[in-house]
Amino acid sequence: MNILVTGGAGFIGSAVVRHIIENTKDNVVNVDKLTYAGNLESLSSISNSKRYIFRHADVCDRVELDIIFNEYQPDLVMHLAAESHVDRSIDGPTAFVETNVVGTYTLLEASRAYWSKLPLDRKATFKFHHVSTDEVYGDLEKPEDLFTETTSYAPSSPYSATKAASDHLVRAWYRTYNLPTIITNCSNNYGPFHFPEKLIPLTILNALEGKPLPIYGNGEQIRDWLYVEDHARALYLVATSGKLGETYNIGGHNEKTNIEVVTTLCDLLEELVPIKPSGVDSYKDLISFVKDRPGHDLRYAIDATKIERELGWKPEETFESGLRKTVFWYLNNRNWWTQVLDGSYKLERLGIED
């Protein structure tokens, strides 16, 4: 197949692109605007593949999207391009509305125009896979509650509200125009190539530098953690074998409080990096509780029964095995994250033609 992946230079998108190139015979066109979180170094292992093409483009640019569709003739669209950081959405929601809502609308319309003109055989097999988040559901009240594919939407932040809006657009385009769509909603991802503003990489890198490990509120917020390479496998499986018009929840079966995540990372670092920065006796001494985020959801947890029952997927990594792999990766890939921290990773974009 020819697969168009939007946001393929981001954290989850790059994992999807690497998975496809390394494990299938499909071709990938990676369309990415290269915002601050997009990093082509995350794709260095497959960038020379003859089956991989990068196009520097914005999903809000309809003219450019039409050119890309006509030139590369995709059989499948996997839409991962999104602004995704909750704190940034609180500080500046405009970019989230533009990318997550307007961008999804623009991509849907470009896909519909392209799909409507395909020969009947190719039209019958074309799919649009929209990748979303469990945050659209809001949070859970009871400890036994889980998000299912029929849970009502109740987003709490500008980020989750814009993702909820994009989900609704995708469903409307399926219902109104019969555009062949599928939606997935995932839990919190972690793993290699994660931008260092998120909890797990931030904790690892701050600890290595002897900086405070900030935790919102009392740290009792609960998230279900999913190793990004498990997620990439699930996304490709849904995109190729999922039922049109359906939603599939993808979770890691790893509910942990934020304070548990941070203390587990500290224990791993005590084992793997016993020589600490000057003045640090214990990594846990660096833990610092800070003012809670406005509208902070208390608990997310996904019921991933449907994707296991219908498609046979379940995560391969436990939280313990995935977290150990993640810490090892950051310890062994200092060049990647130092370039992100000092901003030099952005310089590689200067030679890219639009």
Report on the architecture of this protein.
The chain is an alpha/beta fold. It is 42% helix and 16% strand. The protein has 12 helices and 12 strands. It has helices at residues 11-23, 62-72, 86-91, 94-116, 120-125, 158-177, 199-208, 228-241, 258-272, 305-311, 319-332, 334-342, and strands at residues 2-6, 27-32, 52-56, 76-79, 127-133, 181-186, 188-190, 213-216, 222-227, 247-250, 255-257, 287-290. The strands form 3 sheets. It has a 7-stranded parallel β-sheet, with helices on both faces. Strands 7-9-11 form a 3-stranded mixed β-sheet. Helix 1 links the parallel strand 1 (2-6) and strand 2 (27-32). The chain is globular, with a radius of gyration of 20 Å. The two termini are 25 Å apart. 46% of the residues are buried. Mean pLDDT is 95; it is low at 350-354.
